Amino acid sequence: MKPLPTKRMYRRTAVIFSVVLAILFTFIIAQSLIASGADTEGVQNTNSPVNQDGVITDTNDALAAYMAGHYLPPDVAALYLVTPTVQPPQPTPTTEPDQPVAPPVIIDSTTLTYFVYLPLVFNPPPVVALTVSRANSANQWTVSWEDGGIGVTGYELQEAQNPNFSGAVTIYDGPNLNHVVSGHTASPNNEYYYRVRAKVGSLIGSWSATGVGVGAYYDEFNDPTTGWDRRRVTHIDETTTWYEIEPGKNWLIVQSLDSWDWVIASPLRRAPQPPYVIEYKIKVANLGNLVSSGAVFGGDWNGGLCPDKSTVEGWYQHTACFNHFYNTNVIWFDRLKLLFERVDTLVWCPTCMGSPMKRLGDIESDPDRVPLLNNVSPDNWNTYRIEVRDNSIKFFANGALQNIVDGSTVYGDTRWINDPYFGIFASTDEYSNSTARVEYYKITPLD
Fold it and tell me: Could you tell me where the beta strands, DSSP code E, fall in 267-391?
């Protein structure tokens, strides 16, 4: 007879050994039950499988609790108990009536008592959606999130000033579904990023998608790292911007040196959602015929390099930002007048007459219809205010409401106001350079 292969012989030996162990274990348990004389039939049940602290009190129903949607902490293992049914011994008559004999115990079921520990039976906390309201005039806004549902015990809300959440701080940890953010002052760093996650006891869920809150903006140009730089130029060498920081004066300088050239400087920060008001204090530093400057708002940005300074085309022909905008172009000619511009598109045309970059849109072309400003000092500092609302734009000079277009103090086409990027514009049309000094730039939410 051929000998069994080695693997087959091992398997047969393992099966025989397992059967012997099972019989021996059954015999030992049965003898223990006989010796105790106890009837362990039945397992007690309770009304709720999980108490208020998340602890399993009825382990037989742990799986049912999970299926019903209860949250079980991951450090809890469900325990199931199954007991044998044992028939107690009954006396058996013998041939001698006064000598009863106890028969052996009869086990009706061969089911043994054992414990089963289930691995980590739980539902993870849900990911909740987050929203951020617009800021109000007190520079407060509300962060709200969805209800995570039954079993969720709280929420953690974090705030950071960058989308990567480096240096993030927890500003709320509790059961509410919203939190009012307050206490932030107007600053050049006015963008705040938020995320929230649900908690079930000690179990913590995943973070929500990021929400952004934009508060009041204020820059008095005493810090050269706040990001103001050229974003649109018509000549690389003939336009510039810089911070002029000296004792007793902190200014942003925006300059266009050659005829027909213009420049937009911007920090690429967002304005609050409308309604809001822009206020800036500015002075014409070099008095020359038809030099001009003003505030730009309603600009776009796709997040890319603006401009891409590595190529000539990247400087002049990029489409990354300020493809459209509004411009409060204040022109000096011994007096001051306002050429309000709604720029809808830009066209690069270096062979055309005048500026090589054409601003096209709603721009008055008749000089006689451009309104003069009143209550202003042409050769000195002036404070301008632009009130931006859902259906109107108004312009103020030193507190006085001005005609923003010929014969009207209200401009009604607000198609670009929800694009949040802003800046300063400078241009010259004839021979003298245009140099604007800006003392501060402020954007405040309105109610």
Answer: 276-284, 292-299, 325-332, 336-348, 357-363, 382-389
